[in-house]
Amino acid sequence: MIENYLEDLERRLTPEVEENLWDEWRAFADGRCREEVFSPRRPEPAPPSVAWPHVLVNDALEDFEAMALQQLELCSNALAEGTGALLAVRCNYGTGILPSLFGGERFLMDREIDTLPACRPLDGGAEAVKRVVAKGIPDRDAGQGARTFEMGRYFVRLLADYPRLRRHVHLYHPDLQGPINVCEMLWGSSLYVDLYDKPDLVREFLALITETYVRFMKRWEEMTVDSSQLTDRSNRSSQSPVPRSQLAEGSQRTTANCQPTTSCAVHWSMLHRGRIMVRNDAATNLSPAMYDEFIRPFDQRLLEELGGGAIHFCGRGDHLIGRMAQLPGLYAINTTQPGLNNVEVLLRSTVDRGINLIGFDRDLAVQAVQQRRPLKGRVHCW
């Protein structure tokens, strides 16, 4: 049955349109956007010729074909609405992928809620963490690891016979969260006391999580990306757009277009420089000093080991964003609730430092433009 939907997408996808959209995104990622606000769109909608099913999250968790349909529906919607979203899919198993390697138990939401599962903390708080740390690096196939890798391989096989989809549908990396988020999910709320009472154990656990993240990502890329294609597009001229045909010479997007290269990656249908998207929601609960002590060193290692990337946080993080912006290898920030922050602090810490804001709130961006606040072509809005 899934072949009907793959064929529908293959017919509707216009390579020239996708190439041009890619060029626009790449120019934005490289700081070459000429507009104050970057908000691309396809020239016209491409409606489906078949009725696409909506697959509920809980159903997708249990079946590879259902997962693929759930993710490909997002691509169909982007074409049908003519949005500027790059076509992208992922192994959509929620925030508990990396925690599950350490024994974190998945918590399923009610099926009708149609939202991703969460993760229960380890039973025992700091004592449980001590046992986990003593075991060392977990098996990457433990918990949800094996299923996540196999789903990645399934996507690669699924799109292999569809030339347009193989080139233009991006398989982006699974949600591995970030070191502090994984630490909080497994430790539980007592972490916020143990940051004071057991700082050495916290750092040991964060170091273990970070090493596990690095190894997981490297295996992900080995299994889903042709390493011969991982070339550095940044060697191309950064002063003027490079024809997409030339980019294809040295950095052909691979089967199922997994897309991480040493210079750019697609995440949530947005393009950013670097290869990873680190989640830092838990960081917003901490002071700048604690960010420097418990978070920054581990985020820095991820960016150094994995080719740089972007950071995401929900909620208010304007007290930390200036410190995040100092991380070498950080090229973009995604904050889903910028209205909870001092917007000028966000802009001063990002666009004024050559760091892109992606998925930003349109009303706030328009307001800044009306107030003649320069955005320097570094703010993306849907």
Quantity of strands, as a count: 12
Beta-strand share of residues: 5-15%
- The N- and C-terminal alpha carbons lie at a distance of 32 Å
Overall tally of structural domains:
1
The average pLDDT is: 91
Series of secondary-structure elements, N-terminal to C-terminal: HHEHHEHEEHHHEHHHHEEEHHEHEHEHE
Biggest sheet details: 6 strands, parallel
What proportion of the residues is helical, as a percent range? 40-55%
Shape: globular
Show unreliable segments. Answer: 226-262
Number of helices: 17
Rg over alpha carbons = 20 Å
CATH architecture: Alpha-Beta Barrel
Tell me the CATH topology.
TIM Barrel
Strand order of the largest sheet: 1-12-11-10-9-8
Strand pairing plus helix content: what structural class? alpha/beta
The CATH class: Alpha Beta
Provide a concise account of the structure shown.
This protein has 382 residues and is an alpha/beta fold. The chain is 45% helix and 11% strand. It has a single domain (2-381), classed as TIM Barrel (Alpha-Beta Barrel), CATH 3.20.20.210.
What does this structure look like?
The protein has 382 residues and is α/β, with parallel strands linked by helices. It has a single domain (2-381), classed as TIM Barrel (Alpha-Beta Barrel). The chain has helices at residues 2-12, 15-29, 57-61, 64-81, 97-101, 126-135, 145-159, 163-168, 179-187, 191-197, 199-224, 244-251, 288-294, 296-305, 321-324, 343-349, 362-370, and strands at residues 37-38, 88-89, 105-107, 118-120, 170-171, 264-267, 270-273, 276-279, 309-313, 330-335, 356-360, 379-381. The strands form four sheets. It has a six-stranded parallel β-sheet with strand order 1-12-11-10-9-8. Strands 2-5 form a two-stranded parallel sheet. The protein has a two-stranded antiparallel ribbon with strand order 3-4. Strand 11, helix 17 (362-370) and strand 12 (379-381) form a beta-alpha-beta unit. The longest helix is centred in the middle third of the chain and has 26 residues, at 199-224. It is globular and about 60 Å long. The relative contact order is 0.13.
